[in-house]
């Protein structure tokens, strides 16, 4: 393969280019065959044969002949290595080693063969200063991996050498000299020798290098020729501040990606991820592609990914996602896992222990405030006060805890801190023709509840193996397995979060335990005692899942056509889940003070019952691609491929339920009453077929034009509408490479790019809606006997077809001051048409019809993105980098099936997707308002009720005054700020996340307080400055039946926030210390997640990201103590 001479900056890219697609085998038999073939074909420079025909030819041209006939790649710095000398060489079937000896015999070029790379350097041994001193050392990257072929040069001379396969070097230099160490893709360092005889160097990546290779759909591209809007992160950024939910740790780091954690409960803390906001009326989840294979988020495949296994994450946000066609309309997230490297076996171990607690505890009323609120509510309703002032004082001072307790149910149930352990171990290494990576991970999240057997554990293992059979065939074989084991308390209605809701409802005037005993009381909300429920005594919900991913691919280079190759892969995924929900009889106690005795009572559950469900899903995906890559006349590059893909999914589900179990210790269905049993089963088989391709033309990295397409067929649509064509076009112009820009030395990069693409979405709640479905039914009675039969279950839609998204993007990329200062700007717009949704508004519900999805919805989403970054020279003792990103994405509904005759201001059209319909609160009715007939109000309104705006001006307050709101819980504006500091062995990282133009709605249960004598607890905030006859200017509505509070904007709180999302401080232990115990790298660190937040919900003790109005557990704050070592 012909290569032009390259500078330092480009050599790494070309060195890796032949190894971009590392593929796998799927069966162990094939793996054994592969190993055998590797050993049988362990070609090297002594055995690999070439045919050279050179007559008075430049050395560089002979090198090109060697590269075109072998898998070797020559790496050299054209500024130091002169290959212009002409030689003549004609030989057939000669080894590469012999050619090299002859070629460089009478030159000043020396070479070293390292794997498939042949390193060239100028021979300077005869010029070494014999009176100098000898210095040696090792050059590694930030992970402790040896860098092979790094240049080590004495500054101001031609005296230099290269590092060997272990990263070691030795050089004789003058005592006062300075060494320059450089390698492609890393920042050059200059270090003064002084009195040292040993000098180890840690190289830092040049993160701004334009020749950086980034992952795109079905391949990789140089960053400087990418024409789409993409965002990427590398492994060192992904593994910072480790959390149980990897996605949460990425918040604020990926431009255009909205990441919110809605729940903090272990195992339920997956994040909501949106790329450039919301676009669809139905599904807005992105597509996940792991190592080139589309994979379902089922089982938390992304959120629960072990960050130590990830090499990079790339997000496709515009037409670049069109290559994935039918499921890419919401954007694509590409995950590339780490692979083995040539070298001796290296073991890396990471471990951290975390102290976790909810970011906040909900601020509920204490017993004294609650009692006063209840009395005020009773007074307003004309009911006698429940407590006297003396009794309220006893609540306040705690003088009689038996009769007047003050129970903070959150403190009773919830721990101050819980623990979490996370570990990963990796083994990497390999030889020229075989590399491997094997890793295993473990996660154990402790229960946030004080007395709970709750657990959430995860185990994962990964194996990535790359093998080269010969110069033309490469194989890879990847395996991944994950097991999760989660147990939660069960509350008779719902697990976990439902149990947590009882905590917020239970009154502070109730006991959790009777004082001085371990007897739980019967005083919780609705006969539920949250403390007992949290222990699991009321039952448990247990879920065990198994995930297996296997992938095998083969890469065949066609030797007789330069740049042509064929790649094929097959993947098999399995997901299994066993779900068990057991509701047991639990006991509470009542207390008779007159006899000082306790009576044991059954709790809410009257009879034990068990529900079991088993799910299995299998996914098989196979594809083949024909690739072509070639450069003509050194400036015209064509990178193209076409492919075919077929996949199939099979799912089965089986469930059963029985009640009246004789004991709570036997959780098996056959132990229950057979007369109460119910069961259900289902199965499905679906498939997709796809044709796809891409062509990129690059002229001298200056002008780029790319076309891609996908032709998808889906099981969800009838034959006439089954296939959809999804094209994408993008182009780029690197203006800074023009001749008229070359004199502007401070401007290093200026690129303008644009894209247009069409993508699809075949997401349906139920498949095969174009068919008439039938269901088994009982109910037909004839002559007193009931007969089973079938009935039509749906209304079919024979015209159902693809949801379509058309996206536009215009982007600008700039780099200044040697790319230390960078800026990017994107404008984007997406029009979504033919959205699949039902006509549930215009067709009355009383028809009883099970309506199908139809292609009737339409939305629009547009906005801008900006990224700004600056990095100091990282080779200095003190260095830093600062980057920020900001995204504004605003969506609106163009058409949706809505209730006929709705007022224009009530329609969803023109408003954000999912916007609520609310009465607009404009204050509180005063006595004067009630007395004034010109003030619009509803019948029965009294002073202290929320004042509603008369929107249509008819003098009345009714349903016509409801207004569709302008914001939702998905923010229009998101931003992130990331700061990295480094001083000698120390490093500090800070990550901030923020959002704006988002709203949060409080639970109506907490904002419609004191609706009955002895009702649920209320927020402490509500008890402060409420409107009463004695406080007519109160800022909060009256207590009692403040009609319609939950339906007004009074409960609408700004969800804007600014958070210190992540912080980490680390220390790299010096190598002269750790080498004594056999370690090559060691780093200790302290990190934190969700450390503080500036927002509008702190007064409630609620995190602005949490879901369900604050009833779910707030996201967790983590303090990590961790260590990373390699040996």
UniProtKB/TrEMBL annotation:
**Which keywords appear in this protein's UniProt record, sorted alphabetically?**
Cell outer membrane, Membrane, Signal, Transmembrane, Transmembrane beta strand, Transport
Q: Which PANTHER family match?
A: HEMOGLOBIN AND HEMOGLOBIN-HAPTOGLOBIN-BINDING PROTEIN 1-RELATED, TONB-DEPENDENT OUTER MEMBRANE RECEPTOR
Region called Disordered, residue ranges:
665-686
| Signal peptide limits | 1-40
User: Record's family?
Assistant: Belongs to the TonB-dependent receptor family.
Q: How does it sit in the membrane?
A: Multi-pass membrane protein
Instruction: Decide whether keyword GTP-binding is in the record.
Output: no
Q: Which protein is depicted?
A: SusC/RagA family TonB-linked outer membrane protein
Q: Name one GO molecular function term.
A: siderophore uptake transmembrane transporter activity
**Compositional bias (Polar residues) at which positions?**
673-685
Biological process annotations from GO: siderophore transmembrane transport
This entry carries the following GO cellular component terms, namely: cell outer membrane
Q: Where in the cell is it found?
A: Cell outer membrane
Sorted alphabetically, which Gene3D superfamilies does this protein's record hold? Answer: Carboxypeptidase-like, regulatory domain, TonB-dependent receptor, beta-barrel domain, TonB-dependent receptor, plug domain
Task: Please report the stretch or stretches of sequence annotated as the Secretin/TonB short N-terminal domain.
Answer: 72-123
Q: Which InterPro entries match?
A: Beta-barrel_TonB_sf (IPR036942), CarboxyPept-like_regulatory (IPR008969), Plug_dom (IPR012910), Plug_dom_sf (IPR037066), Secretin/TonB_short_N (IPR011662), TonB-dep_OMP_SusC/RagA (IPR023996), TonB-dep_OMP_SusC/RagA_CS (IPR023997), TonB-dep_rcpt-like (IPR039426)
């Amino acid at each position: 393969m012909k290569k032009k001479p390259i500078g330092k900056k480009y050599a790494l890219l070309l060195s890796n280019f032949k190894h971009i697609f590392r593929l796998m085998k799927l069966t162990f038999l094939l793996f054994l065959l592969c190993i055998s073939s590797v050993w049988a074909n362990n070609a090297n420079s002594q055995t690999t044969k070439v045919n050279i025909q050179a007559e008075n030819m430049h050395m560089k041209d002979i090198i090109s002949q060697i590269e075109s006939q072998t898998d070797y790649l020559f790496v050299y710095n054209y500024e130091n290595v002169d290959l212009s000398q002409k030689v003549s060489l004609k030989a057939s079937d000669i080894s590469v080693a012999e050619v090299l000896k002859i070629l460089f015999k009478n030159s000043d070029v020396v070479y070293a063969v390292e794997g498939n790379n042949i390193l060239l350097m100028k021979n300077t041994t005869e010029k070494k200063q014999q009176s100098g001193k000898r210095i040696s050392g090792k050059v590694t990257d930030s992970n402790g991996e040896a860098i092979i072929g790094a240049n080590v040069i004495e500054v101001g001379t031609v005296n230099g050498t290269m590092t060997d396969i272990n990263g070691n070097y030795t050089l004789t230099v003058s005592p006062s000299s300075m060494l320059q160490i450089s390698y492609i893709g890393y920042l050059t360092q200059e270090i003064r020798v002084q009195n040292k005889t040993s000098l180890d160097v840690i190289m830092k990546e040049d993160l701004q290098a334009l020749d950086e290779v980034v992952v795109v759909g079905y391949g990789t591209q140089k960053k400087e020729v990418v024409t789409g809007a993409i965002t990427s992160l590398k492994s060192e950024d992904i593994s910072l501040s480790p959390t149980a939910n990897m996605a949460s740790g990425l918040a604020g780091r990926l431009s255009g990606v909205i990441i919110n954690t809605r729940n903090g409960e272990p195992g339920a803390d997956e994040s909501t991820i949106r790329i450039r906001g919301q676009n669809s009326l139905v599904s807005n989840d992105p597509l996940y592609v792991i190592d080139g294979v589309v994979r379902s988020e089922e089982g938390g495949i992304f959120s629960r990914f072990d960050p130590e296994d990830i090499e990079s994450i790339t997000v496709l946000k515009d037409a670049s996602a069109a290559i994935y066609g039918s499921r890419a309309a919401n954007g694509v997230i590409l995950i590339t896992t780490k692979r083995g490297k040539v070298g001796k076996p290296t073991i890396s171990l990471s471990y951290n222990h975390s102290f976790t607690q909810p970011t906040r505890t909900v601020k509920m009323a204490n017993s004294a405030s609650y009692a006063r609120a209840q009395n005020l509510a009773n007074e307003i309703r004309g009911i006698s006060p429940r407590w006297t002032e003396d009794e309220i004082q006893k609540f306040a001072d705690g003088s009689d805890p038996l009769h007047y307790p003050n129970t903070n149910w959150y403190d009773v149930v919830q721990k101050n801190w819980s623990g979490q352990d996370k570990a990963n171990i990796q083994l990497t290494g390999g030889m020229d023709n075989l590399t491997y990576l094997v890793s295993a991970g473990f996660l154990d999240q402790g229960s946030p509840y004080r007395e709970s057997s709750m657990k959430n554990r995860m185990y994962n293992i990964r194996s990535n193996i790359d093998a080269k059979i010969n110069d033309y065939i490469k194989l890879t074989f990847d395996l991944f397995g994950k097991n999760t084991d989660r147990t939660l308390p069960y509350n008779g209605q719902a697990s976990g979060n439902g149990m947590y809701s009882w905590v917020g409802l239970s009154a502070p005037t109730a006991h959790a335990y009777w004082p001085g005993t371990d007897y739980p009381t019967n005083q919780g909300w609705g006969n539920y005692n949250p403390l007992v429920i949290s222990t699991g005594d009321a039952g448990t919900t247990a879920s065990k899942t198994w995930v297996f991913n296997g992938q095998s691919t083969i890469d065949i280079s066609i030797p007789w056509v330069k740049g042509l190759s064929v790649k094929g892969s097959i993947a098999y995924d399995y997901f299994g889940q066993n779900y068990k929900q057991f509701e047991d009889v639990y006991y509470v106690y009542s207390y008779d003070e007159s006899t000082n005795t306790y009576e044991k009572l059954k709790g809410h559950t009257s009879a034990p019952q068990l529900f079991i469900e088993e799910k299995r899903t299998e996914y098989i995906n196979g594809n083949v691609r024909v690739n072509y890559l070639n450069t003509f006349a050194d400036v015209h590059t064509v990178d193209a491929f076409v492919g075919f893909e077929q996949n199939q999914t099979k799912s089965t589900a089986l469930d059963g339920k029985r009640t009246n179990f004789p004991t709570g210790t036997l959780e098996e269905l056959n132990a229950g009453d057979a007369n109460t049993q119910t069961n259900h089963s289902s199965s499905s088989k679906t498939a997709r077929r796809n044709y796809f391709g891409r062509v990129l033309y690059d002229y001298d990295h200056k002008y780029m034009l790319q076309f891609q397409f996908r032709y998808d067929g889906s099981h969800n649509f009838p034959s006439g509408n089954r296939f959809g064509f999804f094209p994408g076009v993008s182009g780029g112009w690197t203006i800074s490479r023009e001749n008229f820009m070359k004199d502007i030395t401070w401007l290093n990069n200026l690129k303008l790019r644009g894209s247009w693409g069409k993508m699809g979405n075949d997401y349906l709640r139920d498949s095969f809606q174009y068919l008439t479905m039938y269901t088994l039914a009982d109910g037909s009675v004839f002559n007193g006997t009931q007969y089973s039969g079938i009935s039509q279950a749906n209304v079919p839609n024979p015209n159902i077809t693809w949801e379509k998204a058309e996206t536009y993007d215009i982007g600008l990329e700039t780099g200044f001051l040697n790319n230390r200062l960078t800026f990017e700007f994107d404008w984007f717009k997406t029009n979504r048409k033919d959205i699949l949704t039902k006509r549930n508004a215009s067709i009355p519900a009383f028809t009883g019809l099970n309506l199908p999805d139809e292609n009737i919805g339409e939305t629009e989403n547009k906005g801008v993105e900006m990224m700004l970054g600056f990095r100091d020279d990282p080779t200095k003792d003190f260095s830093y980098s600062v980057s920020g990103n900001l995204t504004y994405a605003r969506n609106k509904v163009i058409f949706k099936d809505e209730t006929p005759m709705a007022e224009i201001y009530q329609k969803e059209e023109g408003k954000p997707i999912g916007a609520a319909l609310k009465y607009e609160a404009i204050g509180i009715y005063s006595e004067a308002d009630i007395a004034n007939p010109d003030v619009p109000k509803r019948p029965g309104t009294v002073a202290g009720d929320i004042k509603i705006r008369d929107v249509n001006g008819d003098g009345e307050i009714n349903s016509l005054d409801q207004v569709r709101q302008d914001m939702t819980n998905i923010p229009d504006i998101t931003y992130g700020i990331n700061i990295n500091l480094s001083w000698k062995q120390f490093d500090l990282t800070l990550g901030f996340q923020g959002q704006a133009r988002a709203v949060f709605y409080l639970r109506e249960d907490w904002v419609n307080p004191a609706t009955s004598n002895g009702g649920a607890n209320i927020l402490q905030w509500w008890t402060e400055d409420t409107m009463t006859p004695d406080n007519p200017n109160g800022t909060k509505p009256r207590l009692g039946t403040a009609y319609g509070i939950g339906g007004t904007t009074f409960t609408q709180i700004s969800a804007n926030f600014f958070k210190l999302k992540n912080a980490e401080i680390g220390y790299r232990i010096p190598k002269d210390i750790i080498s004594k115990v056999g370690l090559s790298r060691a780093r200790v660190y302290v990190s934190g997640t969700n450390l503080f937040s500036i927002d509008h919900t702190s007064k409630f003790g609620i995190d602005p990201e949490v879901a369900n109005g604050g009833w779910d557990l707030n996201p967790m704050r983590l303090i990590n103590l961790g260590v990373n070592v390699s040996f």
